[in-house]
Design goal:
Elements (H helix, E strand, L loop, with lengths): L1 H5 L2 H7 L9 E4 L6 E8 L4 E5 L6 H4 E4 L1 H4 L2 E9 L4 E8 L5 E7 L15 E7 L12 E4 L4 E6 L2 E6 L12 E2 L5 E7 L5 E8 L4 E8 L4 E10 L10
């Protein structure tokens, strides 16, 4: 879906005007679960950018949302929650070095189904407490069928519910082995398993874990599968 959008001629004409973080997510319209758009983040200016493929109005097809709230903030990571309808984000204020959590519904834009369109909603924005463990290199993934966002801190994984609106955990939910640094997170298509890449900076080797999210337990670990891992990908 995302690759198709990158090849879209309308998108290509506008994308050059932004300095996008290396992460994007696609969301669905609440009314009928229909794919509605792709969201990006401009780290250079602190802008949340949305692209609605089926909107005929060029001014609405590509737009930034809540510019004042995102100004001066850099994306740590983002993921989908609430059945692909909403987006959970972690940001860093470049001036104060404080971390922020954002929970947003990007809205619905479709020229063919105007009665099912709705405005975006900034459902929550707030500072992340220091006890939450968020770091500059934290990895973030949303669990689309739930309201949970997982993020990493060193070798640890924390589970946070966006419904809590700022009630972050203070202890890890899952952990990789001591001394490792988590570098990538990918959730399975059925949201049951979380695949984790964790590097050992001493031995310069990469390891892969599988965690059962229902039981919150480690299923397996594949050690020393390669050198340092930057990104995991699943083929369904």
């Amino acid at each position: 879906m995302l690759l198709t959008n990158f090849n879209n001629q309308r998108m290509s004409r506008v994308i050059k005007d932004y300095f996008l973080a290396p992460q994007a997510v696609s969301w669905a319209r609440s009314a009928d679960e229909y794919y509605n758009g792709t969201a990006f983040y401009d780290n250079n200016k602190g802008r949340f950018v949305v692209f609605a493929e089926n909107e005929r109005d060029d001014n609405k097809r590509f737009r930034t949302l809540y510019d004042t709230d995102f100004a001066g903030k850099r994306l740590i990571g983002m993921g989908m929650v609430d059945n692909y309808h909403e987006i959970a984000m972690l940001l860093k204020d470049t001036l104060t070095s404080s971390y922020y959590h954002v929970w947003i519904n990007p809205g619905a834009y479709d020229a063919n189904s105007k009665t099912r369109n709705y405005d975006p909603e900034l459902k929550y924005i707030g500072a992340v407490p220091a006890t939450a463990g968020v770091k500059d290199n934290s990895q973030v993934v949303g669990i689309p069928s739930t309201n949970l966002m997982y993020y990493s801190s060193g070798n640890a994984l924390y589970a946070y519910s966006v419904l809590s609106k700022g009630n972050f955990p203070t202890a890890p939910t899952l952990t990789c082995d001591s001394g490792e640094e988590i570098s990538s997170l990918v959730v399975s298509q059925d949201d049951q398993y979380l695949y984790v890449a964790a590097n050992n900076p001493t031995t310069k080797t990469g390891n892969i874990y599988c965690f059962d999210l229902n039981n919150r337990a480690r299923v397996w670990k594949k050690s020393n599968v390669t050198g340092m891992i930057r990104q995991l990908a699943l083929r369904f």
